[in-house]
Design goal:
This is GNAT family N-acetyltransferase. By secondary structure, the protein is α+β, with helices and mostly antiparallel strands. The protein has a domain of 118 residues: Aminopeptidase. 29% of the residues lie in helices and 34% in strands. A seven-stranded mixed beta sheet has the order 1-2-3-4-5-7-6, with helices on both faces. Helix 1 crosses helix 2. The longest helix is centred in the N-terminal third of the chain and has 16 residues. It is globular, with a radius of gyration of 16 Å. The N and C termini lie far apart (41 Å).
Amino acid sequence: MQDTSVVDTQIHKISSLAGYQQSLNHLLVDSVNNGASIGFIAPLTRAQADHYWHSIECDLLNDSRELFVITEGSEVIGAVQLSLCQKANGAHRGEVEKLMVHSQYQGQGFAKQLMHTLEKSALQQQLKLLVLDTRLGDIASLLYEKLGYIEAGEIPQFALSSSGELQSTVLFYKLLK
């Protein structure tokens, strides 16, 4: 295990996966295989992660999605995405997706830093509303509440777990000012 007591990190908005692909694959596999409910079922393979990131690159290139990463040196240790609504009546809103921090770096405030960066970008684009969902009972709910997100409700049997159990999700929103 890596010593993370003093970590020199930077947050970047990236518009291309060039130079980040392997590191993003590693982050996604680590997150899913350590229990994150972010649209995949463990065990996630590198090939599955690679396929996912290739599908995201198109959204990055056409500006319908933003990807923020936090790096230590050349290694991505966290990421979050802002998906911009493409509907004419939804141009004022975005969806927070796939907030991930590598298991070795959790509990050090990196998720909060990523969320602040995402929100700042959303404000610069004059977005008025952010929405997200997270598995019922996940620790991420506490972070979202601390950041001012309001719980809007719960949807039962929303996602399938790695063990085959149907799990509920909680919807959150935040009005930006």
